[in-house]
Design brief:
alpha/beta, single chain, binds fe (ii) ion, 35% helix, six-stranded mixed sheet, seven-stranded mixed sheet
Amino acid sequence: MKPFNFFLVTDTHYFEPSLGASGKAFDEYMKREQYFMAESSDIIKAVFSDIAADKETEYVIIPGDLSKNGEIESHKSFLKELYKFKDAGKKVFVLTAGHDYNEKSRAFVDDERIEVEGTPFKLLPKLYKDFGYSQAIAVDEQSLSYIADMTDGVRLLAINCDGEGNPKGAVDERLSEWIKLQLENAKKSGCEVIAICHYPIIPPVPVFDLVGDAKLKNWRDTAALLADNGVKLVLTGHMHIQSVNKFTSENGNTLVDICTSCLTGSPAKYRKVSYDGEKIDVRSIDVPDFREETNGVPLKEFFDNQFRYSIINRVNGIFNGEGIAKKIGKKLLNGITVGGLGRLLLVKVDKSIRKKKFIDLAGDIGIAIFAGDQPFVAGTPVGDAFGKALDRLGFVLKKVEPKLAKNGVKPDLKEMLLNTIGNNKGYSDNNVIIYIQNKS
Ligand SMILES: [Fe+2]
Ligand SMILES: [Fe+2]
């Protein structure tokens, strides 16, 4: 197949600003939110105008969480942006997800959080009819998954795992059968299939395999189903993380999952991908300067600051409330240095990080995990200190591991954690070329 080029944007979480996003209740809400809500419209417009100006690439794929929380007004405004793409000659394919029909649609007006009109799940394919559904060769009416012709010999399989029609975050037996049938039909027609799914199919980082909502349930079954039926590439979102992962089925077929960040929060990236059936070429692009109101703060810092703020507030939330133990816990958490913690655990910490506050390092690590290409590998001060701390806490890990066993297999927590804070995959999560040759 000739190279098929497309932009990949996900988790736009568009919020219509006229609904209201200011005041005391809003400030309180933003204490725990990773991504921007008041600024989302400006961010999306800036990115979309850059994409529209790119004359080389005709396709744009968006795998879900289009709106903030399903506000009908957000969908209407977001659709206007998609129609601008159409006017610019772009072909857009979307998938909707949990945040597109959530019943808890809210805005913030006069220091209060108010309810606003949401969007029923069944209305979504009508709203987005010109962006996938009307081009569909087949639609699974229950889950609202679809398969559509994108260009000669290339189909898009949009797997809706986050709707009302099937168990949340799962591809059940019924949907698996429907997928298999579509892939068999595509094969008969000599078509290559690219899949999209809102939930990551392969856990983006190893520890996410232990977190229920961080990847598809029974993900190995779905990954094998796709890989063994001719799909080599799946595009996902949901976890707001930059991560590229490979899975090889028992039959020896490989699937690559490109999970991409939220567009409106750190690391605020989107992708340009080229795929020719064997070679997958992934490039990542930063959200451009979208406003003067970042007050001269460099854009990366602007996004990272909000993420850090939300991580620190969430961690501190554990110690919220009265009681002397909670107060001491909070003080310790916010005051202790990495060196101090090292002394408590009897772990030697490199002097370059000894004076750093532990809470700040936790923020650095959180930001790095979601940005991909995590630098804290063995041989770095943080990677080495973390490895030694995990050895010291080995007796705790050994107690926890049997409780996390799946199908009788215990996870290796130390390995999982080290490979979560350090990218040891041998390739980048952001800019990478991968070659796949499968038997199927
Ligand atoms: Fe999302
Ligand atoms: Fe999501």
